[in-house]
Amino acid sequence: MTELHLKLLCITFQVKDTSRNHTVGDLQALVSNQVSQLQQQGRLTGAALAQMFQSVSDRLNEPLPEGQHDSVKKELRQQMLQSLSAATSSFPPNNPAEVQMSANVVAGLTTQGHELTDTAQLQASYLLTNLSTSLVTLTRSGKELSEQILQASMPIIDAVSNIIKVSSSTSKQNEISSHLLNTVDNVQSALLADKKVNQEPTILSTSVFGLYVNRISSNDLSKQPINVQKNSSASFILPSLGSDVVSQDEPVDVRMTSFRINPFSWHDGEHISGSVGSLSLTKMNGSVIPVANLTEEIEILLPRTEVAEVNQTLLELANFSTVVINVTAPNISLVFKLDPSEETPLQLLLGFQDYPNDTNYEARIQLPQDGDSAEERYTWVLNPTEMTIEVGVYYLLVRPVVGAGVNSTNASVFITTIAAHCLYWDEIKANWSGDGCRVGPRTTTLVTQCLCTHLTFFGSSFLVMPNVVDVSRTAELFATFVNNPVVVCFVGAIILAYLVVVMWARRKDIQDAVKVKVTVLEDNDPLAEYRYLLSINTGHRRGASTSSQVTVTLQGTEGESEPHHLTDPGKPVFERGGLDMFLLTTPFSLGELQSIRLWHDNSGQHPAWYVNKVMVQDLETGQKWHFLCNSWLSIDLGECTLDKVFPVATEMDLKRFSNLFFMKTAKDFRDGHIWFSVISRPPSSNFTRVQRVSCCFSLLLCTMLTSIMFWGIPSDPSEQTMDLGQIEFTWQQVMIGIQSSIIMFPINLLIVSIFRNARPREQKSESSSKQQSKTDPKKQGKTGRVSPNQPPHNNHKEITPDTVIKDVKRIAQSLYKVMRRPVPRIELDSTKTNINNLLSLVEEIICQHNRIGNEFYTDSSKKEQTFAASLECVNLKESSYCESAEQNGKHSIYSQYLYKQLQNVERELRLLGPSSFSKPDSYNQAVLQVQGMKKLLEPQVSSSSASGLHTRSSSPTGGNSGDSKKCCQKGLPWWFVFVGWFLVVATSGVSAYFTMMYGLTYGKERSISWLISMVVSFFESLFITQPVKVLGFAVFFALVLKTVDQEDYGDVPIDGTLPITDDPDAVRIARRDSTCSFYQPPPPTNIEKMRNNMIKEQKVFALIREILIYVGFLWMLLLVAYGQRDPHAYYLTQHIRQSFRNGISDSMKHNDILNWAKSSLLNNLFGQYPGIPSICIVHVVYLFKVKNCLFIIPIDLYVPCCNVTFSGFITDGNSKLVGNARLRQVRVRKDSCKIAKTMQYSVPDCHAPYSWDAEDMGSYSPGWNRNKNVNGSKILLTPWHYQTQNKLRASPVWGGLALYKGGGFVVELGPDKKNASSLLQYLYDNIWLDVYTQAVFVEFTVYNANVNLFCIVTLTFETTGVGAFYYRSEVQTVHLYQSTGGFHVFVIASEAIYFLFILYYMFVQGKLMKQQKWAYFSSKWNLLELAIIILSWSALCVLVKRTMLGNRDIEYYQNNKDMFASFYETATADAVLGYLIAFLVLLATIKLWHLLRLNPKLHMITSTLQRAWTDISGFIVVMTIMFLAYSIACNLMYGWRLYSYRTLLEAAQTIICLQLGIFNYDEVLDYNPLLGAFLIGSCIIFMTFVVLNLFISVILVAFNEEQLHPTPSEEEEIVDLMLMKICSLLGIKCKKKQIDADASMTTASVIS
Predict the structure, then answer these.
(1) Fewest Cβ atoms closer than 10 Å to its Cβ: which of 124, 958, 987, 1107?
(2) Degrees (nearest 5) of the Cα angle 144, 147, 148?
(3) Cα separation of 753 and 279, whole Å?
(4) What are the residue ranges of helices labelled H in 711-866?
(5) Among 258, 253, 256, 245, which Cα is nearest to 286's?
(6) Residues 1526-1585: pLDDT tens digits?
């Protein structure tokens, strides 16, 4: 055994090694070799093979390497199954562990179903039968193996499931299914071997198969559900089985299986669409108990494995009541499920191929029937045994059963039609049969209920019949439009919106068409032919576009290009999110590009530019370079630079997550997302905006149709709900979503694909004529010139010798640049330069080039030789070197360029002639020199032309011919667009029509519900689901795929061509004007000046914005402040104060208070509303007799009568008393203070002044007696009992002398004057007020409806213990009912706008905090802003609190109108709100000082105070000490006698008033003339004459210093600039002040 294990370990190692380095074929050979070795050694057992095959199966289940095919894996799986089957047959397993090992191998080998041949499936099923048989054999050994048997059964069931999934498509399914069913039966027998009675059932389940076994006593068998506890499992409920079926003394083995896939699908008969379940009952010995022909039916529930489309039809019985049903299969059961809006009798008539009536119908029934639930009572099942169901159209008529005389009803009913068939597998005939089974009334769209009288395999054919819209009744449906216009109007609105958006999209498409082109740069050298395609992407950030003049320079390993101005006169360039393509030419190849340099001149209205990325393509070689810029070129954003060099991006840079993620996200949103791309569509895309809008329109209508079709599907209450946090859903909802997508996705994907891939239609004659006009050499002035001030000429007189010398210098400089040397100084003055010397220098370089070997530059030449030529003012150093053969093509291009330059110089010399030169010999020599150099270059030019190294093409991607281009074009023919439009019109029209029909069928309420759900789900999908999906794909793309998405620009036309001309004038005119400013990068000094001026300009606009926002903020604050106050409040307060002051004296005793209450208080508190004088009608009847006749004459007399009065008002008749008024007193305890020992015998009693500790909180009898046995009513005892402030709903009250608790001894005066008067008399008689009373409060609340104000009144009488009471009144007015006028709405709007301002200020201050950090809190203005924000939110909280308290108090009053209603807390909250708003106005007004800091005078005042602050702070300290000293002295000397000095605070106020001249000299002098005169005189001398004057002098000195040496202010210039801006805006001329040199250097583009 040891040797065998070592070999197996070796096999395992080899298999693992093979998985890395070898193919599946090598693995197959290795397996064959090992099996042969084991067979030769006699060790070929199932256990040995299982151990080896386990690792092999794991290897086979891994993804297949590239270059290998599935066929090898199929052969290996089949070989392994055959070997394992043979070994198992020869050597059966000896224990359950070996069975489990072999079963695991089979499960692993059958995991990949597509790699199993028919033979392999058959071999696997046969092997599983042998393994399961071995399990049954092992159970008979007598050992306890239940747990091992269960573990071994699991992989067998997994393997059975794997084979079932793929066996339906094989030709040997009949034989395979037989083996699998035998395997399942053997597993059930093995599991039941050691099963105890009435234990928990044993359940094994997979995704497609479930197995159930249990041993149950016969008594517990009936009415017990038997299932695998899965939604997709069949369920059985057995009725009571008689003793003739099962024995009562012997337990029964229950065996149940459930298949999601039909195991008998090889039979071509009935289509089984649901689960297939079987149930059998056996005895303990395994014999089957026959169950057939039962009197009670077995209930079988078979779930559907697929959720079919369910359509409900809503019938408004008042209008129409017929449903059309299309039956597509014969001999099925029809189930009609009705859901009426109200419990009403219904009569149903079914007709075939004609509308039914009372005499002509196929079936008839009246609902409701008998049933356990409303669903069963309103369900009609038609089985084939009751009526033959044929293929065709049936009409179901539903009409209510109403009483006599009733013609119609308003009831509605939802109808769902289901076609189902209950079948069982007849094992004898081997087919599906329906005998003994019928469809039950509990059948739903999700489950089929079968009622059968026998046991076997059961299946159901299930189909939810769609409710067909009766097109013939379209007019009848649209006749209900008036009652239900919701869906029709919504569809019409969508169509109108589509037409409007299409017009907008068409205009945008026309604008985009202009942008799609490759712009040939106007400043390209007309003789340069090496082409580069520049694709520049401007970012999507806010303000990313630029109005500046942008210049670019390419830098490569073999040279640097000239600066090129990127512009296009035919379209705007560098727009936000735009792509601009330019064709740039150079005389020679730049080699491998290393960097790109971009700059602009900061001109225009919005000069800042955010460049996203740049792609440069060499059109000669096709090579591309990417530059990831992602930078601002701006003086105030990013790095604050206008000139930047960007290195070429490496492969690692391109595959970085950030780049891939943002690139993919931007592309998907701009082009891939069908909705968002309508706005952000790339102009280069063939998929136009009109087509995108139309696709969105079609998609929306299709979505609406599928949504309304599935709307209101009844859900299965027994279906399991999936819970993901707060999100719950069912599989039915998931499947509905999948089915909706399946319905919509293919057609919409087809439409989008057609529009996206259809090629644009080719333009023939018109486009070719335009192209010819563009390539006309005589019209190259526009495309070849930069400067607009040089019109094209055809005049040779402008050619001078200086022109020729400049061209020769250009040749020399070009040669020098090719050799990559620092450019030497070349004299620009043509008078000092000899043309022959220059030509000699050029000739010598070319000759040297020919001698070295036709090579201008290589890296090795730098080390070999260098020559220098010095001719007068010309000093050029050149290097000669050899180049490799691979560079010949690039260098020949430069040779052609050099040859053309010399040709142009020769033409210019011939046009000039000898007369233009001072020395004719110089002219002749120059001509000969040029011709000689041309001869030197002709071999290279002719060889390059012959080899075709460089040819022109009109396309940026190469020069393919038209025929080859047509052959290689990708995409669909252009006429496919018409197919797309046909599909758009068809899908939109059909969807709109049927959506309207469904909407009219559903009724108004259901249509509104559907519409709300549809709109919400649409916007949720548009703004949440789809963006999240795009971001998710972008993350996957960037993290997993990591492939750079190459942009395809299609066949982009070139705007202009490279000029080809032999006219020297045209070449000269087409050359760039190198003097233009934008060809030179802006110097750093100019950038700094522009930045400073831009900062000033930004400060100007920030200041203007700050002032405007502050004005709006202050306006809203004042509206809010005065909206919370009422001007009538003062008059109401004064009126109530004066009304109750009658009878009040300066000093009152206890009895005086009660006398005042009985007279003045009651007279003013209880009045009557005078009402309106009324007119009384008196009916008078006059009777008089004339002769024998009695005359009766009635007369109505109108006489004035008394006024109508209303109680509950106070005396003024306008203010209503809210609740009752109450009296409350607070007392102190007896003996609450200590008496001096010498006076204890003289003064028997002492009580302290009021304090919370000394307050009396006891309970007494009338007269303040402690005796509790006093007869009296409960209401008379209440004034003698202390009540807490919580019980009284009160709060502490500030008095003039102390802070009093809200509790006390309380008496309520009642609702009328009579009751109050008797109550006050009772209090007077029993001495309710005595010497221990410290304060008496009269509290009541009134409401004046005229001014909509509540008035909370508190009249206070308090004493200090000296025996005299002092009167004090506190009246608070509150708005609890907001007025309903227009001003109230205005105030509410103002409050909302005010808090929008606060949110804005919070955002601004948050940014400042983030920038300044702790330095933020050192600025007083920042602290002021912070205080305003905090106070504003505090005011909002108090406002909410006041509203809540007001509602609480009003509710209390409404429920307790006969009691005192306390509004004190509400009034307190209102007062706090008023204080907060007042402080807000104060601080906001102080902030105005900060905004007016730019005023020179205010700036001087601020600077003066800052300069003198040190001295001022010292004087403030001295003044505070002096004031405090005099206040204390006056309080001590006069406080016990004079009112103005009674407290320290009052004394301090009086001393301050003395400094202001407000002082009562007489009272001080009358008290003590000598001491008073000294005190007043010294205070005036020291405080007024000395300290205050010195204080003022300090300020004046600082002011004088500020005038002489003013503090510089940068904001002065800002003010001047702001005034200039305002004057310019208003068209007012203003004098410009003298500004410094920096400002004078500012470009006109900065200050626009």
Answers:
(1) 958
(2) 85
(3) 52
(4) 731-757, 765-774, 781-784, 801-818, 835-852, 861-864
(5) 253
(6) 888 888 888 777 878 888 888 888 888 888 777 887 788 777 778 888 888 888 887 777
Q: Is the pLDDT of residue 355 over 70?
A: yes
**Residue 897 C-alpha from the chain's centroid:** 58
> Which secondary structure element, helix H or strand E, spans residue 1134, and what is its range?
helix 1128-1139
Within a 13 Å sphere around the CA of 726, how many CA atoms are in the beta-carbon half? 0
Tokens representing 813?
């400089």
**How much is the pLDDT for 646?**
93
What is d(CA 585, CA 616) in angstroms, rounded to the nearest whole number? 12
DSSP state, residue 1566: H
Query: CA-CA distance, 343 to 354, in Å (whole number)?
Result: 29
Task: Tell me if residue 802 falls in helix, strand or coil.
Answer: helix
* Tokens linked to 362: 């196929």
Structure tokens at 1536: 């016990």
Phi then psi dihedrals of residue 1444, to 5 deg = -65, -45
In this structure, what token pair is assigned to residue 1116?
Answer: 């809203």
Q: Are 951 and 865 in contact (CB under 8 A)?
A: no
* Contact indicator for 471, 993 with CB cutoff of 8 Å: no
Return the DSSP state at 754: H
Interatomic CA distance for residues 574 and 549, integer angstroms: 10
Task: Give the pairing type, strands 564-566 and 721-724.
Answer: unpaired
Q: How far apart are CA 975 and CA 896, in angstroms?
A: 45
For residue 641, the one-letter residue type is T
| Token pair of 1262 as six digits | 């009338």
How far apart CA 719 and CA 307 sit, in angstroms, is: 13
- Three-class DSSP category at 624: strand
Q: Which amino acid is at 1281?
A: H
Indicate the pairing of strand 346-352 with strand 392-400.
antiparallel
Task: Give 1245: exposed, middle or buried? Use CB within 10 Å, 0-12, 13-18, 19+.
Answer: exposed
Query: Does the global pTM surpass 0.70?
Result: no
Cis peptide before 303 (omega within 30 of 0): no
pLDDT exceeds cutoff 90 at 207: no
With CA atoms as reference, report the closest residue to 211 among 188, 189, 230, 195: 188
What sign for the dihedral angle of Cα 861, 862, 864, 869?
positive
Question: What are 447's strand-pairing partners?
Answer: 303
Residues 468, 488: Cα–Cα separation, whole Å:
19
Handedness of CA 996, 1001, 1006, 1008 (dihedral sign): positive
What's the CA gap between 1014 and 1008, in Å, rounded?
A: 10
Closest Cα partner for 832 from 875, 803, 872, 876? 872
Using an 8 Å Cβ cutoff, are 616 and 555 in contact?
Answer: no
CB atoms within 10 A of CB 65: 10
* H helix or E strand, kind and range, residue 33: helix 24-41
- How do beta strands 579-586 and 518-520 pair? parallel
Output the CA angle 1013-1014-1015, nearest 5 degrees. Answer: 95
Q: What are phi and psi of 543, to 5 degrees?
A: 75, 25
Length of the chain: 1648
For 1104, which DSSP code?
H
- Asked if 575 and 539 touch (Cβ cutoff 8 Å), the reply is no
DSSP E strands, 88-229: 202-205, 209-216, 225-226
**pLDDT tens-digit series, residues 1230-1266:** 877 877 777 767 777 788 888 888 888 888 888 888 7
Residue 1625: which of 1617, 1613, 1636 has the closest Cα? 1617
Helix (H, G, I), strand (E, B) or coil at 1190: strand
Can you tell me whether residue 264 is helix, strand or coil? coil
The backbone torsions φ and ψ at residue 1224, rounded to the nearest 5 degrees and listed phi first, read: -135, 130
Residue ranges of alpha helices (H) inside 448-605 are: 474-478, 486-515
93, two tokens: 């397993």
Q: Nearest Cα to 1341, choosing from 1468, 1463, 1168?
A: 1463
